[in-house]
Amino acid sequence: MSWSITRAARETGLSKSTISRAIKSGKISALRGEDGAYHIEPAELFRAYPKRVAQPPSDAADDAPRNPREEPSATPSRNEEILQVKVAMLEEMLDRERETVADLRKRLDTTTDRVLALAQPQQPPSDAPNDAPRNTPQPPHKHWLFGLFRR
What is the per-residue pLDDT across 76-119, written as a single tens digit (0 to 9) for each? Predict the structure, then answer.
């Protein structure tokens, strides 16, 4: 059983000219009948172009053409209800994320304060005498520099 270009276009959802160009370019193969019409095998057609999937049925109210001057319906459609639920869920997720960020900021500030406190040099007690030995390291002797040049 072979199909005409018209039937092939209907089955794939493409235009007849697209199917005709595909035959002429060699993308799909077809036989030409005595009357000049092409005959396309379905397997050959679906090898190159997938079969058109039927659209799922939707609410008739959603598909109806809308008049821009007409007032919107008082009752939300099914799609609007779904979107409202999704928005509410996303707002809850956003609130949880904001709480998490606030907690992380508080932890970071606490940790930063601790690090800064540890990084500050220790001050000697003010009641210590001035002649007490200090634990500050002495600057290195300058003669070590000359040892580097000898090598």
Answer: 788 888 899 999 999 999 999 999 999 999 999 999 988 888 88
Partners of 32 in the beta sheet?
38
Distance of alpha carbon 120 from alpha carbon 118, whole angstroms = 6
Spatial contact of 53 and 33, defined as CB atoms under 8 Å apart: no
φ/ψ of residue 38, rounded to 5:
-85, 145
Q: pTM for the full model?
A: 0.37
What per-residue string of b and e applies to 86-121 under the rule 16 or more CB within 10 Å gives b?
Answer: eeeeeeeeeeeeeeeeeeeeeeeeeeeeeeeeeeee
